[in-house]
Specification:
single chain; alpha/beta; Rossmann fold; 2 domains; five-stranded parallel beta sheet; three-stranded antiparallel beta sheet
């Protein structure tokens, strides 16, 4: 790679011969995106599940040179997408060294940089700003002020320099001017106070900012992007209508459409690479159940749909599940860590804080709702894995009076020994997608999956102390010999009667 120009004279020559290009930020991002589209490479590496929905809309917004906003519930990769926009920037751009707003040496905005160019001329040193330093991000909060966002006039600086307050050299720049020649992202825009949102009008419409009432205007070169949760429009604040009108594109995000898309995201994001001499083997059915927990929670009537269920739920859950399995392997001195379904129940703290409950859910309690969601997830995955497989002979063993006592800390070999008495259980477990010669910990995980799957299918039952047994057949209520006011109630019409017992 040729060396970059180090002086203003060299920069002018490089611009003249085309080795350095001068263009606005939006033009720069647009042209780099066009090149990437032609080359066929991934537009936003690490963003999964949006190729046919969100990404095309972002491409259209960038090609249109729009400022845009991403609307979506929590945990839908909004912030990650905004940060990924930096990959569409050039490696570096020339700047005036030490300038707070990263002025272009060939067309400086601030008075100090213009004076420096006049004083030093072509010999002035030129600095280079990397793409990562050209991204400024701000989480909107109600206490953010105009001074924080745009800037203010510093009376102390004015007094020390013996300048009037209207002089440009007295400006203390806010975050937005400091994002000049880059990308400025505001997360959770509705949380920003209305008067601060008004302060963004001019930059979106005209491309410049004005500091208070003084005639100091800065025509900034910046691309502005936003994120917001639709719930916030009524819960904590709203985006004022004039500001929404000035945002070029409004793009809706969503949760993974399929379980396998969610698994890909969770596998990418979850920290499962543990140090030490233990070998980690996560069965596919465990990964599926972890992901299905989020899908079941999103459609559960007791979970608040407006708040959503973040994709961070399966990520945190898988990490906690692996940790519980790791703890068991360390206590049992086992060389292989293989998570089980029982580890998912042990990881309730990774679930209960990731969703908000409706009134009915509050009455049931977060732990109870989470356990029922896990059981529903186990049942859904079990039905898929063992579709068309006859497991009646295993359930029959329990129906005949057999019981098994287990817990999440039971060593793999001991679990296999206790369950060996169940006819066909181990053979059925080997059909859960485990290797032909699985490690004891992996086979134990499959056995645990079968037991929990049968329990979720209501073929067998489990008590709170993890004792599996046959399901008791419901008995039909008997008519009491004598009417009782608590047991027998007259129907409002006719002479039919109901019995409650």
């Amino acid at each position: 790679m040729p060396s970059r120009p180090g002086s203003l004279e060299q920069l002018r020559a490089a611009v003249a011969d085309g080795s350095v290009r001068r263009r606005s930020v939006k033009d720069e991002i647009r042209e780099n995106l066009i090149e990437r589209l032609r080359n066929g490479g991934p537009l936003f590496p690490g963003i999964i599940g949006y190729d046919d929905t969100v990404v095309p809309q972002i491409v259209n917004a960038v090609l249109s040179k729009h400022n845009f906003i991403l609307l979506g519930l929590r945990g839908q990769a909004k912030s990650r997408i905004l940060r990924a926009l930096t990959t569409l920037l050039d490696d570096a751009v020339p700047v005036v060294p030490g300038c707070e707003i990263h002025d272009d040496p060939l067309a400086p905005l601030c008075a100090a940089c213009r004076q420096r160019v006049r004083d030093e001329g072509d010999a002035m040193e030129v600095g280079w700003l990397g793409r990562d330093a050209r991204f400024v991000e701000k989480l909107a909060t109600p206490d953010v002020t105009i001074a924080d966002m745009i800037g203010d006039l510093d009376p102390i600086k004015a007094a020390r320099s013996r300048l009037t307050l209207g002089d440009e050299l007295t400006i203390h720049y806010g975050l937005l001017p400091r994002a000049n020649r880059g990308i400025f992202a505001i997360n959770e825009l509705p949380d920003l106070a209305g008067k601060i949102q008004v302060g963004l009008f001019n930059i979106l419409q005209e491309g410049d900012v004005q500091i208070k009432g003084y005639p100091v205007r800065l025509p900034l070169d910046v691309m502005m992007v936003f994120s917001a949760n639709p719930e916030d429009y009524t819960a904590r604040g709203k985006i004022i209508t004039p500001l929404k009108d000035r945002i070029g594109s409004e793009i809706r995000t969503h949760y993974p459409a399929t379980r396998h898309e969610g698994m890909a995201i969770t596998t990418q994001e979850a920290w499962t690479t543990r140090t030490g001499n233990l070998e980690l083997q996560i069965p596919d059915f465990v990964r599926e159940i972890v992901e299905e927990v989020a899908f079941q929670a999103r459609k559960d009537a007791r979970v608040d749909k407006r708040s959503g269920v973040s994709q961070r739920l399966p990520i945190s859950l898988l990490e906690n599940v692996v940790s519980n399995a790791e703890r068991r392997a360390l206590l049992a001195d086992e060389p292989v860590v293989a998570p089980r379904v029982t580890d998912i129940y042990a990881a309730l703290p990774a679930i209960t804080g990731k969703f908000e409950l409706e009134y009915e859910g509050e009455l049931r309690g977060a732990d109870t709702v989470a356990r029922e969601i896990i059981r529903a997830a186990v049942g859904a995955v079990f039905s898929g894995v063992f579709a068309g497989v006859d497991y009646a002979h295993v359930a029959e063993w329990f129906e005949l009076g057999g019981t098994i006592q287990v817990d999440d800390t039971l060593a793999a070999r001991e679990l296999l020994e206790r369950t060996a008495v169940v006819q066909g259980l181990h053979d059925l477990a080997r059909q859960a997608g485990v290797p032909k010669t699985p490690a004891p910990a992996v086979l134990a995980s499959a056995v645990d999956f079968v037991l929990e799957g049968l329990c979720a299918q209501k073929k067998i039952s489990r008590s709170d102390d993890w004792q599996y047994q046959g399901v008791e057949q419901p008995r039909r209520p008997q008519r009491p010999s004598q009417p009782d006011s608590m047991l027998e109630r007259e129907m409002p019409t006719g002479n039919k009667k109901k019995y409650y017992n």
